[in-house]
């Protein structure tokens, strides 16, 4: 199965995405990661106001197969979290690049986005597998 990814998204090696929207960055996990996890049953996210370091664990996603940590693709302050995904983890599974987003961050260093893979590079990486 070949995966397609929104062109504006940037991706970490650990399959989290960052999508800049003005001064904020929306964070989630890729459709590839969701597919690998299988049926998602629980999502744990940080609280609004928490500060995240780039590469640091910011929560976990539990599926019938495994529990996986998620890592911040950029450093910043959590300004919003997706309560709908917390209440209904299947939202993440149904639309990981849309309604299944996880966090909105105010990045402390927006230039960190440039170090992430663009959608084409990430797509080549995961589709080659």
Can you put this structure into words, describing what you see?
- This is Glycine cleavage system H protein.
- It is a single chain.
- This protein is an alpha+beta fold and 129 residues long.
- The chain has a single domain, classed as OB fold (Dihydrolipoamide Acetyltransferase, E2P), CATH 2.40.50.100.
- It is built from four helices and ten strands.
- The strands form two sheets. Strands 5-8-9-3-2-1-10 form a seven-stranded antiparallel β-sheet. A three-stranded antiparallel β-sheet has the order 4-6-7.
Fill in the keyword field for this structure:
129 residues; alpha+beta; OB fold (Dihydrolipoamide Acetyltransferase, E2P); 7-stranded antiparallel β-sheet; 3-stranded antiparallel β-sheet; 4 helices; 10 strands; 36% strand; lipoyl; Glycine cleavage system H protein; Biotin_lipoyl
Helix/strand order, N-terminal first: EEEHEEEEEHHEEH
Number of domains: 1
Structural class: alpha+beta
Kindly report the name of the CATH homologous superfamily: RNA polymerase II/Efflux pump adaptor protein, barrel-sandwich hybrid domain
Could you give the distance between the termini? 10 Å
How is the biggest beta sheet arranged? Answer: 7 strands, antiparallel
Indicate the overall shape: globular
